Structures are given as structure tokens and as C-alpha cells.
Amino acid sequence: MPTDTSLLLTQKDKFTLPEDIHYLNCATRSPFSRTVEQAGHDAIRRDTNPFGLRPDDFFSGTVRARTLFSELINNQNAGTLDPERIAIVPSVSYGMAVVARNLPRKPGIKAGQHIVLVGSEFPSDVYAWDRVCTELGLTVTTVDMPAEFPKGAIWNERLLDAIGPDTALVIVPPVHWMYGIRFDLEAVGQRAREVGAWLAIDGTQAIGALPFDLSVIQPDAVICAGYKWLMGPYSLSLAYFGPAFDEGIPLEEGWMNRLDSNQFHRLMDYQPVYRPKAYRYNVGEQSHFIQMPMLEAALEQLLDWQPARIQTYTEALLRDAWPALENLGCHVEPINGSRGRSHHLVGLWLPDHADPMSVQQALQAEKVSVSARARALRIAPHVYNIPADVDALVNVLTKVLSKN
């Protein structure tokens, strides 16, 4: 990825969000930029007349998106981007199901081993393992969030301590989806390799807004939904599957995933051989003629903005807000590198007397959008936000929390 060290300025003009809306909730769903919106309109217009559609058009549309995502996560092989390791999937649950389906094939897998999860993980990263644990005699070890502040350093140490010789699989995100606390993926990846465990990462709440280097982390699988920090359409996700999955078992036997499947005149010459690497894990109807151009446009924008610059922008945007909110009795995880908080997704723990849902409703009434998660508000800014959005957040919280 090319590096631009200049400061990123607000990109509000590239979005059509109403002026009176303070949308600090990209962790729930990103708004479409004007560019992504136009890509969707153009795709629909093309689809009104499918005359001239060629067999190769069913395949070529995904090539650019795979390449752009590979660039975003630094997916390389011998110094060259390796988009064949990227599969088109509909969701994180689908990608994690691929991992679960292939866990019985893992060398050395045996009853009594365990799968390591962080506490309060998103359900798609939890439900995936019930069936395979029963089938293989595995158990799940959950590393819960510490009660004390600051939490990040302690949580990371407990996570590393939980990974040992009897660990079969580790599932961990770059940042916790509710609280924005970061996990040191480089250290987790190294520990997993030392004990022979697979590492699967749900990158949904980080990739696109937080730098992610596949070559350093060396995970076995990375799955990322497209409608949050990738800023693309819903029900379209991207997944990296490493060499451990090269001869694996897909969830479905899609016809497009076989060699020579672009030769429509020979489709009845049934082909037993899959296309290389991660291609076998593609969902059926992977072409997504309308959505794929939208995702491509979103990825191009993110590579231009760059995740490191997005982090710098969102850090500066909320820098003065945190002390003001802490003066109201709130808590926020401190900045502590890869074991502290992210800047694009931050958990704000409310005082004990405050009801998170009531606070969220008060914010919503003033057109400030955040999410309530357990005892915290999840604040998730992006480059379309400006200081007025943060002022609105602080003003409402000051009014609501000062009443109690």
C-alpha cells in the first residue's frame, strides 16, 4: 500500500448525510459515499440490459475487489499481491463456518484440546464452534474482560496465557466489537504458531480503519464483513484463507469454483478440480453484479484515505472530548499501542447511575447516533464526522449525566 503521511482532512463533502445528523455509528453500518452510491446506480443501469454479457463477466468483476482487499491487508506471496487467497463470502458466519468445517482436518487435532475466544465476542464468532466441539471432543476457553481499568494490557496477557500446547484454534479480533479495546495480533499470531494452533480473525470492526498487516500477523483465516469499516454494501464479505485451507472442504459446491467454469459451452464436462487456493470457498453467485462495483469503489477510497490516516483523523477529532466525558464520571480505555484503545471505535463506560439505553435514546432524540452495548456507549467516528458532531455528543451527555 502506498504511504501518504499528510494529514487527512474531513471528507464530509463526499457523503450525503443530512447536516443535522451526527452519525458517530460506523461500527453499526457505514453510510455510502457519493462514489459508492454512484457505482450502485451505474451497476443497476447496466443490469437493465444484460445483452452482450459474456461468460468471463461472471468472474472478472471480483478480480479487482480481491486485489484491492489484498492491498489493504498486505496479502502477498513472494512480494506480489495474492488475490487468489481471497474468497467472496456473504458474512462472517459463513467464513467462520468454513473454518469449523475444516478444523477436523487440522494436523494433530484431538479430543481434549480447546478453542480460545475473548469474552463477550460477537455471536457469529461463538456459535460457529458448538457442533465441531461436540464432534471432536473439544472445549471452549473464554478469556473474559478484566473488571478493572485499564483493561487492555491485562486482557492481552490473559489471552496469551490461555494459548498453550492444547490449543487447537484461537479466534480474536483486532479490536473488541463492543469496547474498541485492541488485541496484539502480532503477539497472538506468534504464540499460536509456537503451539501449533490455527488463528482465525474477525476483522469486521477494524480492517479498513485500522492498519492490518497479514505478513506480520500470519493468521490462517481472516473474515471481514463489507458493510462497516470497508464501507461497502450489506451481505457481501471478504475472507482470506491461508495455506492450511488449500485442500480443504468448502461449504457448498458452487459450479463457478471449478476449473474452466467460464467455458459455458463445456459446463456439462463436469470438472473435479477446483480453481486454486481460496476459490473453492466462494459463495454461490459470487459475481454480485450490482454490489461488487460498490465494494470496489469503497475499497479504492479506503486505500486513498489509508487506515493509518483514518486513525489519526479520528484520534484528533475526539481528543478533547474524552477528558470532558471522564469529568462526568465516564471511563475510557487509555491509548496504549496495540494493547490499548483504537480511535475509530471507542467504548465509553457510563457512570453506575446511568442507564445506557436511556442515554442512547436521549442522544437519538438530538440526532446523535451511537450504540449502547452492555454498560458502555460505542462511539464510532469516521472521516465524514466533524467537530460539530463531537460537540453534539458531549453536550447531550453533559446534560443527561449531570441530572443524576
TrEMBL record:
Keywords: Aminotransferase, Pyridoxal phosphate, Transferase. One of its GO terms (molecular function) is transaminase activity. Residues 84-372 form the Aminotransferase class V domain. This is Aminotransferase class V-fold PLP-dependent enzyme. It comes from Spirosoma flavum. PANTHER family: BLR3095 PROTEIN, CYSTEINE DESULFURASE. InterPro entries: Aminotrans_V_dom (IPR000192), PyrdxlP-dep_Trfase (IPR015424), PyrdxlP-dep_Trfase_major (IPR015421), PyrdxlP-dep_Trfase_small (IPR015422).
